[in-house]
Design goal:
Layout lengths: L1 E5 L3 H12 L3 E5 L3 H8 L10 H11 L2 E4 L10 E4 L15 H11 L7 E4 L7 H8 L6 E4 L9 H6 L4 E5 L1 E3 L5 E5 L1 H13 L1 H5 L4 E5 H32 L3 H9 L20 H14 L8 H23 L8 E5 L14 H11 L3 E5 L4 H7 L4 E2 L3 H5 L4 E4 L4 H6 L2 H7 L4 E4 L6 H6 L3 E4 L4
Parallel strand pairs: 1-2, 1-4, 2-3, 4-5, 5-6, 7-10, 11-12, 11-14, 12-13, 14-15, 15-16
Antiparallel strand pairs: 8-9
Bound molecules: uridine-5'-diphosphate-xylopyranose (UDX).
Uridine-5'-diphosphate-xylopyranose (UDX) binds next to helix 9.
């Protein structure tokens, strides 16, 4: 099929390359000329495992092209929207400027029978509003939220857990929505089944619903994940008060299949381009709907999350002898999570910036995110070399659980470089007993 993807960031670039890899003819559109130049020459503009190979294959096969000109997408029949919906400046709501602009630009090329499939995370009600904007074009709009995780984006796009499509539904005889797809909605769902044929063929659940449900599925999933992380981080706070070990607690409750161990990793909490802004946008939208109380707990989820960053700073101060001023602190990690170079709302960098603010000589290292981190926070010192970061450090803090730090780095090797053997494990990813056995003072998050 001929597809276009408007917006070539973390979501859109991966979607375009992944769709080309399963046999479609895809054009990626973005207003950023530099990004389009990079993508066109097979260079991934950000770190994402497997993306580079997929780009190269798609370009070589002639199935994948990129352009800044929306007119080049005119031959496509399905147009995905993968632009960002960042948090508004000075508010909690999502900024829909880019989504609106994407629909307006698509309006100039839409043909009868075309499909617009929105993938961006949007406040509930957006799809219905956008559908009115394309009325008269003969095209149909559906909402097809994306659940990919950075670091696993290619796999998550090609082999998703589920596919969700919000389509236009018909009104019943009393004028209220029936929840049943209109003929146009059914046709749209069938087209998307064809787009995602390989995943559909392997039995991936394909859920056809109305716009509002599809939009809510996405924010509800992210709100649930954020709540799960903050729940275990709240238990970490309690554990700290009584000398309990939150990692053992998580293992023990995680054995209950109704709870499950995943996303019960206590530490410095969640960040990134999705969870923080999505729970805030959800709260803001619920307030607008007069249902703010229903998701009032998300404010607490956010607050718990932010408190853990402060706790990590306290521990780093304690580890460096009670005062961080003038102390060299090696900060291992800058990305908001491993396998990513994304530093948007990164708890790792936030901790580094706060320590710098206390007068520490912070040296940050990361296998992928240093360039991005340096651009955002030029006041910090950076090094690509882990040994350099560790050399003569008064304290070490692990804030992103890259394999380089949790598996490859040994307490013996680190001990041979640092000035003082004190380590804060901001992700509870080190073997505390092994580090202690080498003479390190070990500080975990919610651990004795
Ligand atoms: C998230 C959702 O997982 C994904 O489905 C959605 O499409 C986009 O948002 P992502 O932002 O890539 O994906 O990261 P995710 O793996 O969810 O991690 C989010 C944050 O939570 C990271 O900062 C991570 O370090 C943190 N986290 C995760 C924890 O602190 N503890 C955990 O147990 C798991």
């Amino acid at each position: 099929m001929r597809l276009s993807v408007v917006g070539c960031g973390y979501l859109g670039a991966v979607h375009a390359a992944a769709m080309a890899s399963i046999g479609h003819e895809v054009i990626g559109i973005d207003v950023d000329e530099r990004k389009i130049e990079q993508l066109s020459s097979g260079v991934a503009p950000f770190f994402e495992p497997d993306l580079q190979e997929l780009l190269a294959d798609g370009l070589a096969a002639g199935r994948l092209t990129f352009s800044t000109d929306i007119a080049d997408a005119a031959a496509a029949t399905v147009h995905f929207i993968g632009v960002g919906t960042p948090q508004q400046k000075g508010g909690y709501a999502a900024d829909l400027t880019y989504v609106d602009a994407a629909v307006d630009s698509l309006r100039t090329i839409l043909k009868p029978g075309d499909l617009i499939a929105g993938k961006s995370t949007v406040p509930v009600g957006t799809a219905a509003r956008l559908a009115t904007r394309i009325e008269g074009s003969g095209a149909t709009l559906v909402w097809n939220p994306e659940f990919l995780r950075e670091g696993w984006a290619v796999k998550d796009t090609i082999e998703p857990d589920r596919l969700v499509v919000g389509v236009p539904v018909s009104d019943g005889i009393d004028g209220t929505a029936t929840g049943e797809a209109t003929a146009g909605g059914q046709r749209a769902a069938d087209i998307l089944r064809e787009v995602y044929a390989p995943a559909v063929a392997t039995g991936t659940p394909f859920i056809v619903t109305d716009y509002a449900t599809a939009e809510l599925v996405k924010v509800a999933a992210n709100a649930f994940l954020a709540t799960k992380i903050s729940f275990i981080n709240a238990m970490a706070e309690i554990s700290e008060a009584v000398g309990a070990d939150v990692t053992q607690l998580a293992d023990a409750i995680g054995h209950d299949v109704r709870i499950g161990r995943r996303f019960l990793g206590a530490g410095i909490g969640f960040g990134g381009g999705c969870l923080p802004k999505d729970i805030r946008a959800f709260s803001a939208r619920a307030e607008e709907l007069g249902k703010g109380d229903a998701v009032g707990f998300l404010r607490e989820v956010d607050a718990i999350n932010l408190r853990r960053r402060e706790r990590a700073v306290e521990l780093a101060v304690e580890a460096s002898g009670g005062n961080a001023f003038g102390k060299k602190i090696a900060v291992l990690g800058a990305a908001f999570k491993p396998h990513s170079d994304d530093i948007r709302d990164s708890p790792a960098l936030d901790v580094a910036v706060r320590l710098h603010g206390l007068g520490a000589q912070v040296v940050v290292t990361d296998p992928a995110a240093i360039d991005n981190a340096r651009r955002a926070h030029p006041q910090l010192a950076y090094t690509d070399d882990l040994d350099d970061a560790l050399r003569a450090a008064d304290a070490v803090i692990v804030v992103t659980e890259w394999d380089e730090y949790r598996r490859v780095l040994t307490p013996q090797h680190a001990g041979s470089l640092v000035g003082a053997k004190a380590v804060v494990d901001g992700r509870n990813c080190l073997d505390a007993a092994a580090w202690r056995a080498e003479g390190w003072r070990y500080f975990g998050m919610g651990r004795p």
